[in-house]
Specification:
- The structure is a homodimer of 170-residue chains.
- With 170 residues, chain A is mainly alpha-helical.
- Helix content of chain A is 62%, strand content 8%.
- The first copy, chain A, contains 6 helices and 3 strands; from the N terminus they run ααβααββαα.
- Chain A has a 3-stranded antiparallel sheet with strand order 1-3-2.
- The first copy, chain A, is globular.
- Chain A starts with 23 loop residues before the first helix and ends with a helix.
- Chain B binds a DNA duplex (30 and 30 nucleotides) through α3 and α4.
DNA sequence: CCTTCAAGCTTGAAACGTCAAGTCATGCTG
DNA sequence: CAGCATGACTTGACGTTTCAAGCTTGAAGG
């Protein structure tokens, strides 16, 4: 779906997919990719919520914080990586804060920035969630492909991302 | 993020990514894929909403209907393909119905099913949206890759999907 | 200093999605 | 064929995201 529906047919009964814009091979590849775009995040979310009561965004926030000096990052940096709007991130972090996994304070060196800071509890939560997450990842993605296939998937992803980045900048 | 955070460090200052669970290469490929999972749907949504006032789910619903006999499909079939819960789909179709793009009626052959049916207006809307969507798709995905790369991306996606399908069934 | 401005959030209302019941048609069982 | 079970939704309440202001901090110009 989402590409190959007939655009010339006028009768409900006579409607047949045309696929006039993409070759069958292109269409096929695209359809497979769409399925992954839809179902892979879903699958990851399922596992995280079931085993760790975390959403993917929340996990991303905690993980990202854990990788920074002093477990501290500007809100805006978090927003960029997770593709959450600032406003969404603000709400997400507010909820994490209520759960005691993160706290916020103004950046001492520039009061316009707000720092999100991972708490010990947040770190512990992340540390508990991580192994299950990686295991799941392995079983769904990593082990489904040969090393070479995985490498190629990565580089195709990079090429796509550079197009997206370009279209965002332009 | 989401995999390689240190799990042994206890001091906020000493925290360094370990990457102990995935090789650097695997991690790299995975990170690239995650970025696509996050940003590609976003990019598609942007274009559709800007040019056609449609969300991706809505486009999917219209497109899927257009490919069926009599522009008609059971709600549950739509739900499966779009990975919307039945309930979400019900709300989505309700909104499409209010906009006159779709209508609903009980399946005459089995009253438990509800048929969603594309209206002429819905078809026209889809036909208007499709070219822009395909153009965008081409510029972001198809043209970013060689035919061979695209083919490989498709088959990698299939392999991943079969794992996900298996984990859903089991 | 004193505006004016932009950046970086925060907030609240509205739109959207999820979850837990509830409804209704059909199948199955005794 | 009565009664229970099941499947396919629908509904409404609740939680989340988005959208459009609004607030606050610091920078720049006069």
């Amino acid at each position: 779906m989402m590409h190959d529906m007939a655009v010339d047919a006028r009768e409900p009964t006579a409607t047949e997919p045309l696929g006039g814009w993409l070759t069958p091979g292109q269409l096929d590849s695209w359809l497979s990719l769409v399925r992954v775009l839809i179902w892979l995040p879903w699958s990851i979310d399922q596992q995280l919520q079931r085993d760790s009561k975390l959403r993917m965004v929340e996990y991303q926030v905690l993980a990202m914080l854990s990788e920074h000096e002093n477990w501290t990052t500007h809100m805006s940096a978090l927003a960029e990586v997770t593709n959450a709007s600032l406003s969404r991130l603000s709400h997400v972090v507010e909820r994490l804060e209520k759960r005691g996994l993160v706290r916020r304070e103004p950046d001492p060196t520039d009061g316009r920035f707000t720092n999100a800071i991972l708490t010990d509890l947040g770190y512990a939560t992340l540390a508990e969630a991580a192994p299950g997450h990686v295991t799941h990842l392995r079983s769904i993605v990593i082990d489904a492909l040969s090393p070479e296939q995985l490498r190629r998937l990565g580089s195709a992803s990079q090429r796509i991302m550079s197009r997206i980045d370009a279209s965002r900048a332009g």
